Amino acid sequence: MTTLDPRIATRLKRNADGLVCAVAQQRGTGEVLMVAWMDDEALHQTLTTRRATYFSRSRNRLWVKGETSGNTQQVHDVRLDCDGDTILLVVDQTGPACHTGTPTCFDADSLL
Amino acid sequence: MTTLDPRIATRLKRNADGLVCAVAQQRGTGEVLMVAWMDDEALHQTLTTRRATYFSRSRNRLWVKGETSGNTQQVHDVRLDCDGDTILLVVDQTGPACHTGTPTCFDADSLL
């Protein structure tokens, strides 16, 4: 049972797994840090604690970003897109966002 | 049958529908414009034409962004994330990115 505000919950368009896509962007620079997923409870915790919290599909549980690495995300804005299936988080990232140690998950290579 | 370069195709981690997530970001400002989906052919066309091309889940077909509205995206970079399931497009957006007429799909409201 989630405690997400029902006024927000009714606006979400979840996928078959009950998740919405979440894009984390660095405040100020606009750098796109990573893309992950949220269930209702992850969104609730993100909104109330202001620490980015996702739903880990591999571990099948809530995942407070940085809970083990310390590379947390302080949340400054949470925006829902036009059709309700994607959330944009504007954050201050502590340390590298990517588990590989790079600043973002998109640093490895360009396909062009 | 897609013509996507097999060296790229082998690196993609597609969802159950054969799609990867794609985030479009405005070059220069870093503004996150929209999130959509790509199959292999959409990625191939994006890489070769430099016009952002997605797979429309509602229409179940390739969708060249702006093909009817004229609000195209000229692609300057295409980056694959660390685990191969998300693509970041750095684009020059012509006109509003959102079908609602707003500059981005995240302009409507903040949940905080």
UniProtKB/TrEMBL annotation, chains A, B:
Gene assigned in the entry: hisI
Domain Phosphoribosyl-AMP cyclohydrolase: 34-106
Similarity comment: In the N-terminal section; belongs to the PRA-CH family. Belongs to the PRA-CH family.
Source superkingdom: Bacteria
Protein name (database record): Phosphoribosyl-AMP cyclohydrolase
Ligase in keyword set: no
Entry-linked HAMAP family: HisI
Cofactor stoichiometry and binding remark: Binds 1 zinc ion per subunit. Binds 1 Mg(2+) ion per subunit.
Enzyme class: hydrolase
Signal peptide region: none
EC number(s) per entry: 3.5.4.19
Subcellular location(s) per record: Cytoplasm
Entries under PANTHER family matching the protein: HISTIDINE BIOSYNTHESIS BIFUNCTIONAL PROTEIN, PHOSPHORIBOSYL-AMP CYCLOHYDROLASE
Positions with a binding annotation for Zn(2+): C82, C98, C105
Pfam families: PRA-CH
Organism the protein comes from: Actinokineospora auranticolor
Lineage: Bacteria, Bacillati, Actinomycetota, Actinomycetes, Pseudonocardiales
Subunit structure: Homodimer.
Binding site for Mg(2+): D81, D83, D85
GO BP: L-histidine biosynthetic process
Keyword Aminoacyl-tRNA synthetase in record: no
Catalysed conversion reaction: 1-(5-phospho-beta-D-ribosyl)-5'-AMP + H2O = 1-(5-phospho-beta-D-ribosyl)-5-[(5-phospho-beta-D-ribosylamino)methylideneamino]imidazole-4-carboxamide; 1-(5-phospho-beta-D-ribosyl)-ATP + H2O = 1-(5-phospho-beta-D-ribosyl)-5'-AMP + diphosphate + H(+)
Swiss-Prot/TrEMBL cofactor(s): Zn(2+); Mg(2+)
GO molecular function, one term: zinc ion binding
Keyword tags: Amino-acid biosynthesis, Cytoplasm, Histidine biosynthesis, Hydrolase, Magnesium, Metal-binding, Zinc
Function as written in the Swiss-Prot or TrEMBL entry: Catalyzes the hydrolysis of the adenine ring of phosphoribosyl-AMP.
Primary location class: cytoplasm
GO cellular component term, pick one: cytoplasm
Pathway(s) of this molecule: Amino-acid biosynthesis; L-histidine biosynthesis; L-histidine from 5-phospho-alpha-D-ribose 1-diphosphate: step 3/9; Amino-acid biosynthesis; L-histidine biosynthesis; L-histidine from 5-phospho-alpha-D-ribose 1-diphosphate: step 2/9
